[in-house]
Amino acid sequence: MVTEIKEKSKSSNLLLILLISFGVFCLILLGILLSGDSTSTNNQNFESDASVSDTLSQITKSPESMLPLVSELPTEYSMEEKKDITNESSTITSRNAEEGFDSGKRLSISKYKVGTYTVTDYIEITFGIYKFDNPNYASDFQKKVSESVKNSGGYEKISVSSDAECFAWTEDYGYGGGRFGDSICVRSNVVFWTSVSITNSFKQPDSYVKDMTKILDRKVN
Q1: pLDDT at 26
Q2: What are the residue boundaries of the structural domains of the chain, listed by start?
Q3: Which residues pair with 198 in a beta bridge?
Q4: What residues form DSSP beta bridges with 104?
Q5: How many CA atoms are closer than 13 Å to the CA of 128, on its beta-carbon side?
Q6: Are the beta carbons of 183 and 193 closer than 8 angstroms?
Q7: Are 181 and 209 spatial neighbours (Cβ–Cβ below 8 Å)?
Q8: Which residues on neighbouring strands pair with residue 165, listed in sequence order?
Q9: pLDDT truncated to tens, each residue of the chain (221 aa)?
């Protein structure tokens, strides 16, 4: 009888151990499943937050609103009418930048002196705003323009004051051939391009490029 009781006790203990072990295993398995769901949810939330952040960081203003106003420009310049830049414009098609290009606007201003026999110190400045669907398209366009200038040679690199990524340069073809200066900058999904042309003049374009880039830099945000 004692032996039988001991055997029953052993069986009960063994069953209890098995039940406890099975319960522990289930708890561990449940913990792993819940941890996986939490990680997946966190990853999804992170990706969603990153996507929202990218969208919010993009510039949504119209290209026209980022061009300088009359009151923001030196009074001695006369202004032309603003012109649209489309994905069929040569500036876009020549760089194969049609894909991702949203819209653009261009404004030219000029001034000159009338001499005894001819016009001198003719200065024309063109501001261009190029808005793209996202920063990658804008950066690619700016790089294509910069690389084209670098590959062609015959230029002198200059620096401009801006927290945007900029490449600026000048080209000198003499009094009759003209002196030219440009800066092309990218901020988020917008490229802003300032171009200076000086003919019949001994003046250099450097200071004009720097001053006009500052004006445009304040508008693009």
Answers
A1: 56
A2: 1-57, 64-219
A3: 123, 179
A4: 85, 130
A5: 20
A6: yes
A7: yes
A8: 186
A9: 434 434 444 455 545 455 555 555 555 655 555 555 544 444 454 344 434 345 558 999 999 999 999 999 999 999 999 999 999 999 999 999 999 999 999 999 999 999 888 899 999 999 999 999 999 999 999 999 999 999 999 999 999 999 999 999 999 999 989 999 999 999 999 999 999 999 999 999 999 999 999 999 999 98
User: How big is the chain, counted in residues?
Assistant: 221
Q: Is 106 helix (H, G, I), strand (E, B) or coil?
A: strand
CB 140 within 8 A of CB 130: no
Instruction: Provide the CA 150 distance to its chain's centre, in angstroms.
Output: 21
- What is 10-43 written as a DSSP string? HHHHHHHHHHHHHHHHHHHHHHHHHHHHHHHHHH
pTM: 0.76
Q: Which residue matches tokens 């024309």?
A: 124
| Strand pairing category for 119-132 and 156-158 | unpaired
Interior CA angle at 201 toward 198 and 207, to 5°? 55
Which residue reads 């004006």 in tokens? 215
Q: What is the pLDDT of residue 136?
A: 97
Tokens standing for residue 168: 């600026």
For 64-219, the fitting CATH number among 3.40.50.12780, 3.40.50.300, 2.60.40.3880, 3.40.1000.70 is 3.40.1000.70
Contacts of 44 (CB under 8 A, 6+ apart): none
CB 220 within 8 A of CB 129: yes
